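Build the 3D complex.
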Amino acid sequence: MSNTAEVVGSVPRVELSGIVKTYGGVRAIRNADLSVAPGTVHALVGENGAGKSTLIKILAGAERADAGSLQFNGEPVSITSTTDALGLGVQTVYQEPQLFPELSVAENVFVGRELRRGIRVDWAAQAEQMNSLLDTVGLDVGIATRTVGDLSIAQQQQVSIAKALAGEARVLILDEPSAILTDAEIDVLFAVIRRLTATGVSVIYISHRLDELFRIADVVTIMRDGETITTRPIGELTVREIAELMVGGVLAEPRADVEATRGDVVLQLDDMSLAGSFSEISLDVRAGEIVGLYGLIGSGAGEIASTIYGMQRPTGGRMLVRGEPVVLRRPSSAKKRGIHLLPANRSAQGSFSFQSIAFNITIGELHLLSRIKGWVQRRAERDIARNFITRLAVKTPSERQPISAMSGGNAQKVVLARQLVNRPELLVLVEPTQGVDVGAKEEIHRIIDDLASEGTAVLVVTSDLGEVLRISDRIIVIRSGEIAHEFTPDATQVEILAAAAGETHGSEEPS
Amino acid sequence: MTAVAHERASKPIVKRILPPPVTGQELVLVGVIAVLWVLLGIFTPSFLSPSSIQPLLVSVAPIALIGVGMTFIIITAGIDVSVGGAIALCAVVTAKLLVNYDVPLIVAVLVSMVLGTVLGLINGTLIAYGRVHAIIITFGTANIFQFFALRVFGSSTVNGIPSTLDVFGRGESGRTLGVPHSFAITILVVLIAWWYLRNTAGGRHLFAIGGNENAARLAGVKVQPRVVFAYVATGALVGLGACFFIAAGTSTLDQGVGAGRELAVIAAVVIGGTSILGGRGSVIGTLLGAILVQTVNSGVTQLGWPSQLANLFVGIFIIIAVGTDLLRERARRSRA
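Done.
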């Protein structure tokens, strides 16, 4: 290994100060300071949108800060590209392994920086370095010749780390490395991290799972609303205190209306499981009720939604719609039962970008529009589109505008309108306001409220704390594929976050 | 630090609920065809005579007809390279039937179309339910269809085909008021398909599948049956098109029938403005594309130029058409 332990005393390995970053008028980072000591694991935590990933991108050279300075081993440096960052030894391992599945482990590790003898790849030298790298990341040496696509996700992540270490690594950024791992795999990851820090590598560790920070991190920096709030040794804090610092003094806004009229149970899940995602989930949603399903990335909450919509078959338990057991093989059969889904990823799963707003609104219900004559009634289609544009306050001059020309909030309203053309019995919304501006977010919440008061059962899957408190009648927290706790809307953000992030309920101490 | 302002001239946004009835690319094609016809009329005065235009339209008919089905397929982001083999199989079966049993016209056409439909059903089912990319499946079936076609041929050409199908042919019996019947049928099919794509749920679903298959499935579109339909429709049209090919030929059918036709059909579709990426396209464009391709072929012959020049010109047209589509798509992506 080239990374021998360096004794730099108290000089931080990397120090960012006064960082500011604005994206088109939106302040992603107002003021951030981060100082990482050599050979330590430095955790970076914050809610979605707090500015963690932007800060990391600036350090990795993927984004440039508008203001602020950067020091490396006490020397002022500037990072204007990913090449600069790599030159300084700043390596990043992203959440999803960025590997070539068809190539071998060795080829992946050395891709772009092949060791050469003349013009030939020096396989012998690579193999030799490979052995020590695999040893460092805790993989068997024999794995070097295996195809990456055949490895487990955890092994692929270890390969990603090996790849990062094949260059000179002095700062290793791990972006949510544990989100896709099982508990046993996390143990392996932590062993790797400890071995690295022992050689002097500084690790910046981003995670939503607060409980695990106590096992691996030395220091934690908490971000909120684009600012670094505090940096403390991890031992001085508890899960609950970190959660409190993350959400700050912001109080949950209660849901606007008082008590919605509750009807019959529309959706009931009995011990429903999906192998690898969630297990034995039991819940019900009544007509006119908004149930919030809150979970962090990788909690399985999103998979519960997609299973309800028939995108995968549950491996256990059963689902009842209006008291009747149903087996949904595909989304179209869910729709027949009156279940509609607003998918999480608008551009990949929701919109037809070549097409107009009207096309996007009516595509799911063309059978209604063509029932009378066998072909689509253009006038009715236009009226429906215009009606929803008015009702949902979609900002557009015409229903014929292509959806690709719209802002995130307006495009989301169009995709939401599609779910409402034929009023659903049960509407499942996954991250309904992700990537949507504040005004549109409020409007979407109002639309969801209205829909519930008209008697639709609503299940909102979200990782936005403010949102789940704002709109839910009941909040169910999912953690590691299981229901961790159920809250009433008067719960605090801290309680919910603590339950989702791993505080054992009833105990103030982390397990 | 220089702040580079990414300023883009704000273009007027094309307003549409669907693509307009006739797209810009189609108007360009009409213009190109008009210019070619005028130039050819100047340099070879006989070009604009009925005796030259009529055979041109007869040669356009099967390409545009099968192109309608191919447009459906390409709109769903698929492709069918097996139509050459399918034409060969339908044509040889129909020709043998005519020679050996002297069946009437309607029976010949029906048998050919039913056979084509079955072939399309095989393609569509494998593609929609096997979840293997269309080019792989149809490349495979192309060879299989060709094998069966050659088996039916035996080792000789089919000779002495009766004149039953002449109603679709080049001769006097193939025309009414100077318009070739095969071309008139093709126009009718194009119009029906044009209406279908724009005005029915099924047609819209094809665009939705090609535009974003995932979103289509989540919107409740039954993706697989729609995909199968596109290949089945193509198969049926291949069956009819095979009859046109027999009629346009002599009383002898040789083993080369259908060879390379898949490329002519795909060329017509992409020159006509249907995006090879799926989600956009028009059958009117395909008709114009077929006319353009056949005009180039016919024009090169009539000018007495070496016939390989036709390949050169068609190749250039394809690259221009697909290139502008890809550039447009890239511009759209970078804007989004």
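Residues 1-16 of chain B have pLDDT under 50 and may be disordered.
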